[in-house]
Specification:
mainly alpha, 219 residues, 10 helices, globular, Lysozyme
């Protein structure tokens, strides 16, 4: 893995520590241990959303309806950048990553803090993490998802935007399948539907990335 991507706690240890309410990071250089997402038929809309992100492109530029919304985003970016500094020491790497997470989360209609919590649990923010079952990248996407769009190049799952697009679209897909039940959707993402350890770990990690815009709240 690239040195600028940082080293993280193993996913198994992360699940255990987060479920127990522990927040310490040990910085252990170890593999990820993602659960097995299940291959299933996809709706055309899901297939289209996946196929539009199979290139290593520059981070997408977010668009804002107003100056205030842009300023709110910049405040979020500054706050999250400080929290992520230990995992990604280089500012440009950190900025590009956060910008893409924000964009892809919003695009999929997901809470950004939830996606950040999921990435923390899945890969500890390691771009080149690979699990024992072959899941890859930040959001530990299974290689069969690339076959689902007729491409099949699992190496593209190490591209930042491709991985984050796939992960967010897959989670959105599972959330729709579960009629908005986030607990079940997270379990499906991990291949452990109905079991509490994984959803509880993601919810606990989400707290680290919660953001309340004090300027907006004061107004």
């Amino acid at each position: 893995m690239g040195g600028s991507e940082g080293l993280g706690l193993s996913r198994r240890a992360c699940l255990a520590s987060l479920a127990a309410g522990a927040g310490a990071w040990l910085g252990l250089p170890t593999a990820a241990h993602a659960g097995g997402q299940l291959e299933e038929p996809l709706m055309d809309a899901v297939r289209s959303a996946l196929s539009s992100a199979v290139a290593d492109l520059a981070p997408p530029e977010p668009l804002f309806a107003s100056t205030e919304s842009r300023l709110a985003y910049l405040r979020w970016l500054g706050t999250m950048s400080e929290r992520l500094r230990r995992n990604k020491p280089e500012w440009e790497v950190r900025r590009d990553f956060l910008q893409t997470v924000w964009y892809e989360s919003k695009r999929a209609g997901l809470d950004v803090s939830l996606v950040m919590g999921l990435i923390q649990v899945e890969s500890a923010f390691r771009k080149f993490a690979v699990s024992s079952v072959g899941a890859r990248g930040y959001m530990q996407v299974m290689p069969f998802w690339t076959r689902a769009i007729g491409d099949g190049d699992a190496g593209k799952l190490f591209h930042m935007q491709t991985n984050l697009r796939f992960g967010c679209v897959i989670l959105r897909h599972y959330l729709d399948r579960e009629n908005g039940d986030l607990y079940l959707a997270l379990g499906r993402y991990n291949g452990s539907r109905g079991k509490p350890p994984y959803p509880n770990a993601v919810f606990a990690a989400q707290n680290r990335w919660a953001f309340q815009d004090r300027v907006a709240a004061a107004a």
